Amino acid sequence: MPAFDSKDLFDPKFLQSLSRLHLRAKRVAAGGRHAEQRSRDMGAGIEFKDFRPYTPGDDFRAIDWTIYQRLGRVFLRLFEEQEDLPVYLMPDISRSLFLETPPRARSGLRTALALASIALNQHDSVGVFPFSDQMQILLRPQAGSGRIMRFAKALAGLEMGKHTNLTLSLRKLDSLRLRPGLLVLISDFFEPGGLDTALEQLGRMRHKLLLVQLLRPSDRDPALQGDYELVDCETGQAASVSITPTIRDRYRKAYGAFEEQLTGFARKRGAGLLQMDVEQEILPQLSGLFETGSYVV
Amino acid sequence: MSLLALSLPLFLLGIPVLAFLLFSLHRLRIRHQRMEVVTTLFWQEAIEEARARVLVQRFRHPLVYAFLLLISLLLWSGFSDPRLASDPKAQSLILVEGARVHQGSTPEDALAAVQDLLSEMPSEGRSVIWCGARERTLLASGEHAALLEARWQKLEPQATPSHLAAIVGRLARQQRETPLATRLPLHLILVGTETLPKDLLSRLPRDMSVQRLEVEPRSTRAAIELVALGMAPASSGAWNRVDLLLRLRAALANPKSPPRLELAGSPVTASPSHRVEDGVDRYLFTDLPAEGQLLQVFAGGSKMALGSILLPKRRVLQVQVEEGLPPELLAVLEADPGLRLVDSRPDVRIGTSTVTDGVPHLWLDPKSREPVFRFTQTEGSRGETSLRRRFGSLGLDGIDAEDPDVDGAGAAKSGSQGVQVRVDIRDGSRRSIQMPLALLGHGYNFVQSRVFPLFFAQALRWLTAVEEAPRRVAAGEILRGDPSARTDAQGVRLDPVGASFYLPRAGLYQRADGAVLAASLLSPMDDSERAVLPPLQLDSAGSSSMLFWITLLALLALVAEWILVRTGRMP
């Protein structure tokens, strides 16, 4: 049973407000479709890139006659080929994203759809690979701005998964041998057992990375006091804890280490990291990411 | 400092017990609030780090334990009701009047007042003594006040004279005789009496004080004090009837109902006349049958008699009168309502013949010219002594102002003529009186004298040996002049060695010869000889409570704990 209603999750106003945002890649991998992203290929683009001497068989239309007149030698004008940027969205749909109010999954899915909308509007291909204990292929990479409603319905139809297994999900995505593109990982990154293995696997991915961390202020500083039996909603593992100021300090220390691990990885890998407060509207936060109107990966 | 509600060992024992109990509770498994969270990853890390540093796994909050222990000990101390004694070495004796001397309050009121007093006093150094016919310790020093009520309920006020003055005197003597080095100040608190003899109070040692505990009437049943109980011959003139006077004082001005009388256990239906004199209710019951029965007075719904009195036995004597007696004598006999002149089966006979049919008789000897009264009695020397004591009531004193002859014969003057009249007492098998008939003649003025009707009325009653009323003595005072052996109501001989003694309680006692003694409570002293004792102030009962300060400390501890919790320094 779907966790959200599509109308509630994605209203038209929300989609419309995304039109001014753009994703830009410095260079996309060769072999893609013709689109708006700059590629390493020389081709029929409109952006001049270089000259080279004529060789038999070259297209005469590319000869720069002005240079020939001036120098008496035949050179060809070369133009930059513009191709698409494959965007692979990996929203986390494990149990932990559906637990609290408002659920993190709502912000996660709206973020996913926002990014999909942005990419589709600039003729990039977008694929959706939600994951929990394993990855599933919801929508294979496809392009076309008219497909946005299809994406919206597909995302809204997602059901709550089981526990998080980011490592396994990344391995599975990697095994698909997709064209290098932008991998957007939308998750709380609460990986049972720690992030070490998952980050190691993430580091091996051939894609550019954008990490969207779904968090809320209480993650960093929980307002709990007293004696609790805390039950992990994904693993069912219970921890009896008497929350004292000391214990809270230690918690904050552990959480700080977790954040440091994630930001350190992003910095080292050159990945983008967006910390999305799920208790706030996502658009202002996304706007922060697209400070100049576009986000360059 | 002393503890009012708990003994010191019990209080001290409670401290480690409380500490151990709280420690055990603190180590018990904590009842956690179950909560589902997105991850326990960071909590697990925090706990693991904490566990490595604690010595005892579950004893996690020593500060909480310290506060709990502090507050619990303060409450425990408050429960034990510690007192700061103003004079820690002083001894306090609470003397409870056990005599049935009502002070405008019921015994229940007195008990409540004493309990209130005890609640303000430390248990060490105070005792409660019941002062009835015998002294009895109700509460010894150090004993818990809760023991008092059960012991008190087993007692009831006794019809015995108040011994409080004697007890206070004895304690004062003991205090004086105790060496100063070992002497402790002594505070006496009297319950149930408001006065003591002035001279006794003036002789008290300096380190001894006497105060009275004021007993407030609390019960709805007003305490009623019997002020006076007495009787007199019936004003109606009926010989075998008496009038009874009662004076009662009620402590509370609630609607009064007349006292209830029981005669030999049966209720008396009589409507008394009622009058209030100086706040005292005066009831007069008239024409009660004087048949020698015990009359008890009840009032205020109490099942305990306020007092009792033995009514006289006044039956009408059957007198047979022979021919030839002077008309003056006949007129006297007919005028006596206690006598009835009969022709047969008389109780006593009066005449000029010497008939010896066993009936006591008064023989007016027509032949004798010698002015001699000859009494024949049957009790030997004891009877002779008794008879001599009755000369006054027989009117012989009125005949002769001089003392009788010590040899058993006396001389008496008869009127103004100065003729010597002798009184002769001898032993015999039956009582009789012989006197010359001529004494009633014109040669003497005996007939015209005031004692003439009295002599014959009393003489006839002496002859029939009718004891109208038992001899009345004062309970609590040494009994003198009556060497007869006495037994109490249970037949126990009271003076086995013949020593002088007193009857301890009011009531009826029987002599060895069967005669009855009625011991009564008499007011022995004039109020002018008594001093009113100062009332006891509760705050001067020897200690001050620390409950306020302990409660304040506990509240401060609670506030401090609350602040620590609110500021996150304590879970």
Stretches of chain A where pLDDT falls below 50 for ≥5 residues? none
How much strand content do the residues of chain B show?
25-35%
| Inertia-based shape of chain A | elongated
Total individual domains of chain B: 4
Largest interface: A-B, 39 and 26 residues
Mean pLDDT of chain B: 77
Walkthrough of the structure:
The complex is a heterodimer of chains A (297) and B (571). Chain A has 297 residues and is an alpha/beta fold. Chain A is 33% helix and 26% strand. Chain A folds into two domains: 6-24 and 85-220 and 273-296, 3-Layer(aba) Sandwich (Rossmann fold), CATH 3.40.50.410; 34-83, no CATH class. The mean pLDDT of chain A is 84. Chain B contains 13 helices and 31 strands. Chains A and B meet through strand 10, strand 11 and helix 9 of A and strand 2 and helix 2 of B.
